[in-house]
Amino acid sequence: MPATIRRADTSDADLGAVAAVVNEAIPEWPTDVDSMRREDALYPGIVRFIVEQDGRAVGVGIVGRIYIHPPEYDALWATVAVTPESRRRGIGGRLLSETAEVARAAGKSALHAPVSEERPDALSFLVHRGFREHARHKMVRLELEGRHPPADVPPPGIALTTLAERPELIEGVHAVAVEAFADIPGGDEPPAAGDLAEFRARDVDWPTVPHDAFMIAEIDEADAALVTGHVGPAGEGDSLANQGLVDQAAEVGTHGGKLRWRTPAPDGGRKASYSAAEAPAGANPGSHAGLIAPVPIVGHLPPYGMPP
Prior knowledge:
This protein has about 300 residues and is an alpha+beta fold. The chain has seven helices and 14 strands.
């Protein structure tokens, strides 16, 4: 039977079908029904397409707001995933066209799609259709086996705590994020922290962000500075932790590199049985050599922007 394409609804059946295709086609970026429902609540307007053939979903396209930018940003984010046995049949091209139409209808002039250099076929697919490199990001990886977390010895006047221990510091953490996000490299403009409600929903109160691994540096018991964010699954089952880092705030920088610490959690990730941790390194991974070492590059994430 020929493949058919339709918009997915928000039923468990359709979202489950989307998750199944994404997890098979792009296992390093997994999703599930609950995660998609949270995304829909946080960023209304996400559109998903399903391609079905012989009674099963074989491809999906997802398009919506680029969450690190404000709603008025002139581009949408798109993900196209096709199961391996169904590739090179025009399915990906159809999905890409549908997602591009959503972007145009929303008045956007570009479509961004993530792709890893470890997937040359996907990179070739996008370049062949007019995509150009928009930004390039690198990940650093730290093997945890045989490593032990460093001692917590902050500089004078600094106290390390967690959001679980001091939930009342969240407004200070948000204030630091508003200041520090502007220094994060990559793309044509820095990411936006958003207001406190959006920041909490996206970066704090997510199920994969345990508050007891959300580290905060407190200066003179007054100003909060977010030193290292959270630890959670990063797409390789239970073996890999993803570490969020925000440490560019001036209050932290004046105290040197000692605060720019953490293997991914106070226990090095071992309470969650992680064997490795990954963290974004921005445009200059060498600058993280004192933070996470060694710093082998394990992959690249170059999003591409499509002209209208």
